[in-house]
């Protein structure tokens, strides 16, 4: 079960009021964004209230909380593009898959997907500030990712052939982490005798392909 920002105990006389406290504490938009478990049932006590016990729960933001926060975050950024964008988010196994749909979203994608990559990177930072557990964020517009993956594999294939024919290292252009991951995976699977490493600092980090497994020419 998804847990964000840690568990916090809340107490009160009834469940509704206690959940309202949790909602306010986590700045949730509705009670449905809060998951909880009861760790102490309330009791009336004995004569004059002696021994009376409050209701105590452990509560934490859940999947709905995360999704709604990310939607709000993205809407604020996308409003600057002056385009109507529908945001759909799926969550599974610590991965958020964000789909943006709409007309004329070329500005959102940007040249060679730079805007899309930056938006994904910012969203990942935003999400991971909510929890100590690392989350992965995958952001896509239509079939852009699929088409970009094909283009990157073609780039990787041509670079690999060049490294083999010249017996020299081949440096690719700077790429986002998800793009470099595609390059590494393609080379390692299709050209096991070649060696790939990522070099440089973001946002200029790039893949270098070496013609031998030990990383030397």
UniProtKB/TrEMBL annotation:
GO terms for molecular function: RNA binding. Residues 146-213 form the R3H domain. Pfam families: Jag_N, KH_KhpA-B, R3H. PROSITE patterns: R3H. SUPFAM superfamilies: R3H domain. CDD domains: KH-II_Jag (cd02414), R3H_jag (cd02644). Gene3D superfamilies: 3.30.300.20, probable RNA-binding protein from clostridium symbiosum atcc 14940, R3H-like domain. Keywords: Cell shape, Cell wall biogenesis/degradation, Chaperone, Cytoplasm, RNA-binding. It comes from the Bacteria. GO terms for biological process: cell wall organization; regulation of cell shape. NCBIfam families: Jag_EloR. This is Single-stranded nucleic acid binding R3H domain protein. It comes from Petrotoga mobilis (strain DSM 10674 / SJ95).
């Amino acid at each position: 079960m998804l847990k964000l920002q840690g568990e916090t105990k809340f107490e009160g006389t009834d469940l509704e009021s206690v959940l309202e406290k949790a909602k306010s504490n986590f700045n949730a938009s509705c009670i449905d964004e809060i998951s909880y478990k009861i760790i102490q049932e309330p009791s009336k006590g004995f004569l004059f209230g002696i021994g009376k016990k409050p209701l105590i729960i452990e509560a934490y933001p859940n999947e709905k909380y995360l999704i709604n926060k990310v939607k709000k975050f993205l809407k604020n950024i996308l409003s600057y593009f002056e385009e109507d964008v529908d945001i759909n988010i799926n969550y599974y196994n610590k991965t958020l898959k964000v789909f943006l749909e709409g007309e004329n979203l070329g500005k959102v994608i940007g040249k060679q997907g730079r805007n899309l990559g930056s938006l994904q990177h910012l969203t990942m930072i935003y999400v991971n500030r909510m929890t100590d557990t690392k989350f992965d964020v995958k952001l896509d517009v239509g079939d852009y990712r699929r088409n970009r993956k094909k283009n990157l594999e073609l780039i990787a294939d041509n670079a690999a052939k060049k490294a083999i024919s010249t017996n020299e290292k081949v440096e690719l252009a700077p790429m986002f982490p998800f793009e470099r991951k595609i390059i590494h995976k393609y080379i390692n699977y299709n050209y096991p005798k070649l060696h790939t490493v990522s070099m440089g600092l973001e946002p200029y980090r790039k893949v270098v392909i070496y013609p031998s497994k030990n990383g030397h020419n």
